[in-house]
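User: Sequence recovery, please. Input:
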């Protein structure tokens, strides 16, 4: 039996920051942001809502969706580059808050690819029978490391959290293949010192190249062909990057997840947040072949091909 997703959950802050609001704060325009990125609005957490709070709410929803209790969780993995503080880890903070007293806990730093790294790490413990239930959270409060005077980056990001409980699913379902990768020579293109800094052009080129390649690789590793893919959830960073991976897989537009217009780039949270919205909208059915593909700072990347269902 393979590892798969037993339940999912998300949390996004209630405050909506529109492109119009950004027009009033900096030299940008709604038209530029929509055309160049596909973003129309993003959620921004208030001062009282930190990364661990968002992670906790998303985790609660995923645990409920999986039909387990917090005490059933063996391990908590939180993917984030915006923890409340360098340590203790966000995973330990939510372990306490959830009452997941039987769970080990650690954070993962792989930027926007973090959720892919988390799910695949969890898969290893599940398929070796070391653990039964692993909570994986992708969460980011990017607004706290955003330079609100830098129009090159300030328009792109949003806050939020997505979570999944990983465990064994029925025969034939679950994770079929994966690819994880890193190229540290590109670390200079996307990093944080005080604030987040980015060379957009270089990240764009890397993303277009890697997203298509990784998606194709996991389909091939799963022993499938492109026409057997039912749904693609790409990291929601830029609609033009997402479109390039969809075209590479020759998928029609309705078979690609698109939530970037609502949330912007929520980094490690973008794929699980999209997954939750797509499930609510009935876009993914049991036994569908779904491909997740992400990329991010590091540079890092990750893709997963799975057959949906418990
Ligand atoms: N509003 C208006 N103009 C803006 C702007 C904004 N918010 N941001 C940049 N510009 C301007 C630039 O100053 C530049 O003006 P110039 O030609 O007068 O110098 C022009 O738009 C083009 O900028 P450039 O950065 O070269 O555009 P681009 O085609 O590379 O698009 C991004 C910019 C950020 C949309 C694009 O590079 C991108 O999405 N990169 C990937 C980013 C990403 O995914 N990061 C997260 C990784 S997880």
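Assistant: Recovered sequence (310 residues):
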């Amino acid at each position: 039996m393979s590892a798969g997703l037993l339940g999912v959950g998300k949390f996004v802050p209630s405050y909506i920051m529109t492109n119009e609001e950004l027009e009033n704060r900096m030299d940008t325009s709604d038209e530029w942001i929509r055309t160049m990125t596909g973003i129309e609005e993003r959620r921004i957490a208030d001062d009282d809502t930190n990364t661990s709070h968002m992670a906790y709410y998303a985790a609660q929803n995923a645990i409920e969706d999986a039909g387990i209790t917090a005490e059933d969780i063996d391990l908590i993995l939180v993917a984030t580059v915006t923890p409340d503080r360098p340590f203790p880890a966000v995973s330990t903070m939510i372990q306490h808050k959830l009452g997941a007293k039987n769970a080990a806990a650690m954070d993962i730093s792989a930027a926007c690819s973090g959720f892919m790294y988390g799910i695949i790490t969890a898969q290893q413990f599940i398929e070796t029978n070391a653990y039964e239930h692993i909570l994986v959270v992708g969460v980011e409060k990017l607004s706290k490391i955003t330079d609100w005077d830098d129009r090159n980056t300030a328009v792109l990001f949003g806050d939020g959290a997505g979570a999944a409980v990983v465990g064994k699913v029925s025969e034939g379902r679950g994770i079929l293949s994966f690819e994880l990768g890193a190229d540290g020579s590109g670390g200079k293109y996307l990093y944080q010192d005080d604030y987040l800094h980015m060379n957009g052009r270089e990240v764009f080129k890397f993303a277009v190249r890697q997203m298509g390649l990784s998606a194709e690789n996991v389909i091939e590793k799963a022993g499938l062909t492109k026409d057997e893919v039912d749904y693609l959830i790409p990291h929601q960073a830029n609609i033009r990057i997402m479109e390039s991976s969809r075209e590479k897989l020759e998928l029609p537009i309705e078979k690609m997840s698109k939530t970037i217009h609502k949330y912007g780039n929520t980094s490690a949270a973008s794929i699980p947040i999209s997954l939750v919205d797509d499930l609510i909208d009935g876009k993914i059915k049991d036994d569908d072949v779904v491909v997740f593909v992400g990329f991010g700072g590091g540079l890092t990347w990750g893709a997963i091909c799975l057959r949906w269902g418990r």
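The first strand starts at residue 3 and ends at 11.
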